[in-house]
Amino acid sequence: MNIGIVGAGVAGLTAAYDFSKAGHNVTVYESAPFIGGQASTIDVGGGRLERGYHHLFTNDTDIIDLMDELGIGESLQWFPSKVGTYVDGKVYKTTTPMDLLRFGALPIWSRIKLGLFALKVRRIKDWRSLESFTADEWLQDKLGGKAYEVVWNPLLRGKFGDYYDQVGMPWFWSKIQTRFASRKGAGGEQLGYPVKSFDELLFALRDRLVAAGGELHTETPVERVLTQHGRATGLQFRRPDGSTGEQEFDVVLSTVPSYSFPGMVDLPDNYRAKLEGVTYTAAVVLILEMTRPLTDYYWMNIADRSLPFLGLIEHTNMLPKEWYGGSHVLYLTNYVDRSEPLFNMSPEEVLELYLPHLTKFNPEFDRSWVKQMHYNSLSAAQPIIGTHYSDRIPEHQTPVKNLWLANTTQIYPEDRGTNYSIRMGHDVAKRILAEG
After folding, report:
1. Secondary structure tally for the chain: helices H, strands E
2. Judging by beta carbons within 10 Å of its beta carbon (0-12, 13-18, 19+), is residue 271 exposed, middle or buried?
3. Cβ within 8 Å of residue 337, ≥6 positions away
4. CA 21, 252, 35, 277 torsion: positive or negative?
5. Which of 281, 277, 278, 259 is nearest to 379 (CA)?
6. pLDDT tens-place string over residues 20-41
7. What is the CA radius of gyration of the chain?
8. What span, in angstroms and rounded, lies between the C-alpha atoms of 165 and 148?
9. What is the pLDDT of residues 367-388, one digit of tens each?
10. Pick from 180, 212, 238: which residue ends a domain?
11. How much is the pLDDT for 158?
12. Does residue 16 lie within any of the structural domains?
């Protein structure tokens, strides 16, 4: 078969690898000048760093197995993570269960209740029993009190903004399962990271594709899926020089966001409604190269909506700063609606908005610590998955024959992530190959 793939993100590259390994002709089109999508990288101090913070959990078996299959498994290393939580102007260490007992932002009974609640969620095996509830209402009902008000309500609001009360409970359930799976005994999390960045995986997939005779075209956006008599027949694309081209394919797999897909092909109303039924929030990420660390923590939960950012991730508090020319790497991240002013600010404006708040984490912070800034924004960073989503999830096999879709709105009940994009790429490729 001749197979066309729209998008050189992790799911698209994984499917391309499987197709080429099975002996099929594969062509991948990517609108960006780089591959990898949300896992793509930039140069920082001579090393490669993801545009958006990335790490692996110990139960991310799909990516671990794929790296082993590609012969690069030895590059994946595991590091202890140190977690803090910022509440009411103070940072609390929240790495281990013992830290939770010392979490002074809550009365002692609320601390115990919070820990027991997490264990209760962990023991739930059937996530389908939770589909009728939003995370917010389930947390209010089953947890409530100070533990809800001080911790989970502001964290949900920070992550999802105005959509915080629409997110289905299976999302929360999957987060708890993943976090507990990466804990080592009574200690903190063990998180994985490839020593040469996630580029090692992306480039290995690309190289296997090309070695098998496949093609990968960057800076080549697909404008239209060509159809005839209800069947996908090829792709129309725009080359880097601005000219338009067309290529015939037996099968087309698109990995674009759901809101973009209807603009590429005519779809029946019922399938289009499923695509349009999911809202995405955007992401704004600043990466600061600094002369010294801001805190001692890798991951900082921010349970305080007075701050203009949602997360503070100090990459080099878990990984060696020598990988990045000796710079201390700090991510400042936020999820916002695309209509919000923050999403439309210039990188310099975002930096000026954020910098004054860094003294809340370290009173000694001075802007002279910042050597360089990198900015990244994603318009389709986080899909908002609501209740009863298993009844509304868009099928991978679209109503247009030989046209398939694989994007983050189809990862469920888990939250979107690199590991699950790989799993989805494998699954969709397997189904397409079975169809013949």
Report:
1. 12, 19
2. middle
3. 161, 162, 281, 282, 343
4. negative
5. 281
6. 999 999 999 999 999 999 899 9
7. 22
8. 13
9. 999 999 999 999 888 999 999 9
10. 180
11. 85
12. yes
In a domain, 265, yes or no: yes
CB 308 within 8 A of CB 357: yes
Q: Identity (one letter) of the amino acid at 311?
A: G
* Claim to verify: residue 341 and residue 374 sit in the same structural domain: yes
CA distance 55 to 99: 23
Average pLDDT over residues 169-177: 92
Query: Is residue 185 pLDDT above 80, yes or no?
Result: no
Q: How many domains does the chain have?
A: 3
Kindly list the distances between the CA atom of residue 415 and the CA atoms of 100, 172, 410, in Å, as whole numbers in the listed order.
25, 9, 10
CATH code at 347?
A: 3.90.660.20
- 112 with 174, same domain: the answer is yes
Place of tokens 């264990």: 119
CA angle 245, 246, 250 (to 5 degrees): 155
DSSP string, 104-135: TTS-HHHHHHHHHHHHHHHH---GGGGTTSBH
Torsions phi, psi of 215, nearest 5? -125, 145
Place of tokens 């507990």: 180
Contact indicator for 302, 158 with CB cutoff of 8 Å: yes
Domain boundary among 180, 207, 235: 180
7: in domain: yes
